[in-house]
Design brief:
alpha+beta; about 30% helix
Length: about 200
């Protein structure tokens, strides 16, 4: 499967068709939006707009979420159309966050990453205290609060334990590295998140 095929599959399964826990999915002619059921920020994960209608659609979505009294973000990927989408969103009042990278790796049962036991201190995190350890770690590394993330991880682990797996490495009882994985419903993708390690380790 080449790059374009991977992007097409990703777009279909994790943008157009994704069902995200804790959110109500709504699809219109122009956008796929997710509305939080727990007062968190909503998001538009996919859009079908062009130069002639993009400004109108953006204004419609701003009004829609304003009526819901819910903040939201508009996720933009570099293959989205029109090419000026990010600039137009900024003109309409959106704040542009730092760019992120999407990485995809195909795994099979023989892949060395699935047969690596070198971290003897690696522990699966399944309880609320372990998740709080993750939040303390994230706060310390990134110097911004992650309380909302902690609430969402614990809620998801309680409500859908087979869709979320969290792992950490402990040194002398302190969590020094952590990451988590969501198994996406009706998808061939598992998504990796977190990936934070204290600088001294």
């Amino acid at each position: 499967m080449d790059k374009n095929e991977l992007i097409s599959l990703f777009h279909k399964e994790l943008r157009q068709e994704a069902q995200v826990k804790g959110y109500i999915r709504e699809e219109t002619e122009h956008v796929v939006r997710h509305i939080s059921q727990f007062g968190e920020k909503g998001f538009i994960v996919s859009s079908n707009v062009n130069e002639s209608n993009v400004t109108e659609i953006i204004k419609n979505e701003l009004n829609y979420f304003s009526n819901l009294e819910q903040d939201f973000e508009w996720k933009v990927y570099n293959y989205d159309k029109p090419a000026s989408l990010k600039d137009i969103l900024e003109q309409e009042g959106f704040t542009i966050d730092d760019p992120e990278a999407l990485m995809v790796m195909k795994l099979d049962e023989q892949h060395p990453l699935l047969n690596n036991d070198r971290h003897f201190n690696l522990k699966e995190i399944t309880d609320e205290q372990g998740i709080q350890d993750i939040i303390v770690l994230e706060d310390a590394i990134w110097n911004v609060p992650h309380a909302e993330l902690g609430e969402r991880l614990w809620r998801d682990k309680q409500n859908n334990p087979e869709s979320l797996y969290l792992y950490g490495i402990y040194e002398d009882g302190q969590l020094v590295s952590a990451a988590w994985m969501y198994l996406e419903e009706n998808s061939s993708f598992a998504s990796l998140w977190g990936g934070s390690t204290l600088p001294l380790f």
